[in-house]
Amino acid sequence: MKPKLLSLLLSGALLASCQSNTTTETPTTPEQPDMPGDSTTSGAATDTIATIGSPKLLHTLDDAHNTPDGLTLAPNGSIILSVPNLADNSKPAVLMEMTDTSLKPYLSNLPVEPTTKKAAPMDLAFGPDGNLYYAENQYENSKDFKSRLMRVRVTNGKPGTVETVVDNFALANAVVWKGNKIYVTDSQWDMSDNDKGSAVLVFTLAELNKGIVHLKPKTMDPHVLTTFTTQVNETGVDNGADGLDYDSKGNFYTGSFGDGTFYKMTMKPDGTLTKKEALTLKGKKITCVDGLIIDRKTDKAYLCNSRENAIEVVNLKNNTVTTLAQNGDTDGTNGLLDQPAEVLLKGNRLYVSDFDKPEKNFVNKKSDAPHTMSVIEVQ
Which three-class secondary structure state does DSSP give residue 307? Predict the structure, then answer.
């Protein structure tokens, strides 16, 4: 994933606070926003070097793009990035398209949820039909199951109409396609007897094509594959199942954002669940699991330990944990990890979204400029 890497800023001029030259690309549609560039405000970093590993700066975004998040590989080889702007949601959420040397708008004017008046794209993935699907986190705006699974109709590589395919999630988060099924984590799928719940849900492409699927909140809806319970600790966070992916054998893995538990879901060939288990990991204790991706060539899981500003690697063959990169509190300058939330592996380059929206007792202490994307060379 990483032969060459360039720091790129997307404003139209070289600003005094910038650390690299800026390139600008013209939006392909007239409704696109101004290009993001270096933020003109800066927070004071308390850490200036990585204690483990060597993440590098890939892109810097401006304050209108303040919480980069979901990442997916597009058919043309570029990467689609979601920017929900949850640190400052007075700025509209957008989707962006990036390479190692460019970052430009992909889709703006995302449809808002009617009651919250906000759009909130999180993880995203292209389906077998060639369309782009993204999960939505309306939980920041309403606790009343207002989140959705959205579909962007893509024609000749260009995004078009955006439509709801599933509603009534609490906090839809990760999305993964496997065959003609899409798996989605809901980090706040509470039940009537469990207010610390989360879940993995599954939908077929065929049913999504029939019309909007209306989930039944606080129930074992037929689409629920399995559920989890978060053990709330000193962070006070009860978000559960977050990142999601599957290994070379088709087994799924997720982790709890609130307590760091790492789960394996053993699957039958038909996609139904055989068993769910909390894995006993060897080595470092992981306190938080945000986004993750599995290299199915090696069966290594790369996951974001958002709480500790770290990227952890779990060898799924023996459940050992190693730390690929970690640093203390920082503003993200020079690509240091600034509350990593999502990862994407392309070749031997690991792309990292620095979400920079901390919770209590996180290493990251405040949301501040610059807003960054990092990249790490892996072996």
Answer: helix
